[in-house]
Automatic annotation (TrEMBL):
UniProt keyword annotation of Transmembrane helix present: yes
Keyword Transmembrane assigned: yes
Source organism per UniProt: Pararoseomonas baculiformis
Chain segments annotated as coiled-coil in the UniProt record: none
Protein name as it appears in the record: DUF2231 domain-containing protein
Keywords, alphabetical: Membrane, Transmembrane, Transmembrane helix
Length: 143
């Protein structure tokens, strides 16, 4: 009899959680790009785009933070430094994103330069959260 091996994928996060985690990074990066466009052109519509992209990132990001919090306390396995760091980075991303939304709620001219800086930091935190969240996806052979 011939033994075949099939790759198995370990998924430390639920597939729906992974789908939700895919949204904050491009939304916050889009807001950063819109802030750069506004700082270069001073067309008010770019500031409006940033506001909407930040709102979308916060909406989906809230579900990701909530899911990570539930997983932190629901998990039967002991809490690891990775899961705690993941939750803390997500929470910091959401909190700075909320502050960024408040900054972008001001007049378009008044959002610069702190709106641009906050968008950059929020995008970086979204990248780190995605990196930590997806880092557990590993392929291995099953014998």
């Amino acid at each position: 009899m011939v033994a075949t091996s099939a790759p198995a994928v370990l998924r430390p996060i639920h597939p729906l959680h992974a789908i939700l985690l895919a949204f904050p990074l491009p939304l916050f990066l889009g807001a950063l790009a819109s802030d750069f466009a506004y700082s270069a052109t001073y067309q008010v519509q770019w500031a409006n785009f940033s506001s909407w992209l930040i709102a979308g990132g916060l909406l989906v990001g809230a579900f990701v933070v909530l899911w990570a919090l539930v997983n932190l306390f629901r998990s039967a396995r002991p809490r690891t430094g990775r899961s705690i760091a993941y939750f803390v980075v997500l929470l910091a991303m959401w909190a700075l994103g909320f502050i960024n939304a408040l900054v972008h709620a001001k007049d378009a001219w008044a959002t610069m330069p702190e709106g641009l800086y906050l968008s950059g930091i929020t995008s970086l935190l979204a990248l780190v959260a995605s990196w930590i969240g997806y880092a557990g996806f590993q392929a291995r052979e099953v014998h």
